[in-house]
Amino acid sequence: MNKQKNGLLETPGDVALRSATQTVNGLYNSTTMAKDIVEKEPELSNGNPVRSGLELLSSKSNMLVKKVSNVIKEMIFNSDELPEVNYSDYISEKLHHDYTYLSNVFSKITGTSIQQFIIINRIERVKKLLLHDELNLTEISYKLHYSSVAHLSNQFKKITGITPTYYMQMKQTERTCLENLGYL
What we know:
This protein is mainly alpha-helical. The protein has helices at residues 12-39, 49-77, 87-95, 99-110, 114-132, 137-143, 149-160, 164-181; strands at residues 3-5, 8-10. Mean pLDDT is 75; it is low at 27-31 and 37-54.
């Protein structure tokens, strides 16, 4: 059944594509917000020792959060293989801090857990791998140490609101449109 929007007929496919695009854009905005939180640096006050001391502590926390973020991104995006040890052990070892301490500071500053940050970044890596069409879902699942394709798909849908297959179809549609316009 076709619906009208702004005087034009929409097919169910149009509605689904618009909904998925809004979901992806919303997730992009939330990921961007999390990135902004991690990258914020507090400004030091002029001459107020109490305020400067608190801000220095905050600055150290922000620096630590940035280091955690960088270790996670390096681990997920710049490595051909993810570490065989637990992520928590890997991050603790790299930064020479207790994981509980790192987790508490990270959560306090960003409002999200390290584990959730890892999941979001793993899904971003999955999206990039899907766009390049070099690996199928099974290969991506294996490469990123998911226990199964179903686990990857469930996590992908939970984070993005759409399935990996639908994501690939959306991107293929976008590519086709751009090719038809002469941009690719």
